[in-house]
Amino acid sequence: MVRRSSLSVLAAGLLSSTAAIAEGLPAASSSPDEIVVVATRAPARLDQIGQSVSVLTEADIRADQALVVTDLLLRTPGISYNRNGGPGETTSLRIRGAESDQTIVLVDGVKLNDPSSTGGGYNFANLVTADITRIEILRGAQSVLWGSQAIGGVVNIITAEPIKPLQADLKIEGGNRGTFSARAGVGGVSENVLWRVAASHYRTSSVSAFDARFGGRERDPYHNDTVSGRLRINLTSDASIDFRGYYSDARNDFDSTTRDDLEYGRTKELLNYTGLNFGAFDGRLKNRLALQYTRTERMNFNPEQRVTTTTFDALGENLRFEYQGTLQITKGWQAVFGAEHEHSNFRSASPTATAPSPTPAKASTDIDSGYAQLQVEPVQDLTLTAGLRFDDHATFGSHTTTQASAAWRLFNGATILRASYGEGFKAPTLFQLFSDFGNKALQPEEAQSGDVGIEQHVWGNRVIAQATWFKRDSVNLINFVSCTSIATPNCANGRFGFYDNVARAEAEGIELSMTLNPIDPLTITANYTYTEAKDRSPGSATFGRELSRRPRRTANATVSYDWPFAVTTSVAVRYGGRSFDNATNLTRLEAYTLLDLRASWQVTANVELYGRVENVTNETYETTFRNGTLGRTGYVGARLTF
């Protein structure tokens, strides 16, 4: 349970919002008219959404100047992370204390996950900002619309679209530790065709993945090349074809947890989307038929190994057929419904000096799904949403999830009350089902989550304050079980362990945020999250312990000022509270505070110069035990538009 002191903080946040109304003081920002897609699979105003959503716009992404998406997401409420070293090392992102592989990542509407990884999730290490212009973060269990893995939430990534007949842009940036990045994009839009192609390159010599405090000396460099593109052809006034593509090729050097070594990895990620959009009933029914394909290749190499330098080789693929319909039944009544078929397969092998060409583990599975969600406005300013999903998995069988939410706008939208309940599930991965440690009797991980929040707008939206309480209970969590402590048929044939549904967890907390714009040039944003994420596995030696690598407290604050001579400066602070690196809570990761300074100068309408210093105080910290992190680092760059 959330401690009384934390509940007092929530109460204080709610009371301060009420006091702001009475005294006419400023509150926070983010327009209630903002249109989002991730919560309903169809465009909807933010003040009609009952779930907790954050939106990072193109202006937000540009102002932050971050090179990797994780650094952007960490500025929003409810998100924490751990990375096994500097940029490019394995990165796990958690929403409200859920596992990283319980978060769905969408790139231009395509679910990007890796069926060959143990948990089947997405490694955020190689997701660079590149051509991204918008990010939507949906918190809480969201399996009705988004299916398996949506226990923690959904991160929706959207790349740029042109708005002129012909336009181009270029960004070049450099910094210490051998950092260099460049991005270029070109595209155009006419009456019948929209197109864009973009490419980016990012490299850095970084730091040692094995922390220098423990003896790490050599650097572990990283480089990433990303290409994306889209083409839309309007066939008629209400029919079009969409083609989208994304490809990333990355290399990272990494270390063991005890020493420097020369190992490195290559990761290639590909996604393709082909969709047909068409309307019916005078545009009241919008239909989408789509074919989606994703492919993730991972290989690790050790130059010091004699017989074979390859130490790991894995391939994961998803092929998804999808239909979605959006029906405007009448004013204030909208239905979203659809059907999906997903085929996944994986291959994985770990060559060694004694077995340089092992027989790879291979498997595939299918899942068929159908969903429906109804959004209604029974009375003015009250929006109710409810949905149902049915999934039929080829291995573990069928599963049903439900979801409901409400958004109530009061005082002409100055106050918005929100509440939501959602169920989430995560199907056992191919590795957990069919690898040498697999268990075909596994059941899906399940979760029930809910949140209640208030959003207060004051002083003509110059102040917007939000407070949200959330809770999630998760059962049937899949863990690795050692055969040394248990006797079961799963331990036959000499296996030393297997995967089983043995764990349970709960998370509860509060999220507070506020944006103030007291005068036009000055903007202040801040958020605070308190999360209690605990192991509730019956009979476990870790029952009641905090889940590893989930800081109880995280906070962010940014102060920006637009000077009259076309210069913008900002100061940003990020706080990560103490956490534990292991399930027994014996290895402690200390709290840290990072200070960043940023500046940009709009030289002309088409030229911008910018720069930043990250970790100004050269704070020493770690998000995983014995893994290095960046100290003070400076960057300068330029953006050009044509």
From TrEMBL:
Matching InterPro entries: Beta-barrel_TonB, Beta-barrel_TonB_sf, Plug_dom, Plug_dom_sf, TonB-dep_rcpt-like
Keywords: Cell outer membrane, Ion transport, Membrane, Receptor, Signal, TonB box, Transmembrane, Transmembrane beta strand, Transport
Domain TonB-dependent receptor-like beta-barrel: 221-616
Superkingdom as given in the UniProt entry: Bacteria
Gene Ontology, cellular component aspect: cell outer membrane
GO biological process, one term: cobalamin transport
PROSITE patterns, sorted: TONB_DEPENDENT_REC_3 (PS52016)
Protein location: Cell outer membrane
Topology of this chain in the membrane: Multi-pass membrane protein
Major subcellular location class: membrane
Annotated ranges, domain TonB-dependent receptor plug: 47-154
Region Disordered: start-end pairs: 344-365
Pfam families according to UniProt: Plug, TonB_dep_Rec_b-barrel
Low complexity biased stretches: 348-364
Signal peptide boundaries: 1-22
Record PANTHER family: COLICIN I RECEPTOR-RELATED (PTHR30069:SF53), TONB-DEPENDENT OUTER MEMBRANE RECEPTOR (PTHR30069)
Similarity annotation: Belongs to the TonB-dependent receptor family.
Full protein name: TonB-dependent receptor
Biological source species: Roseiterribacter gracilis
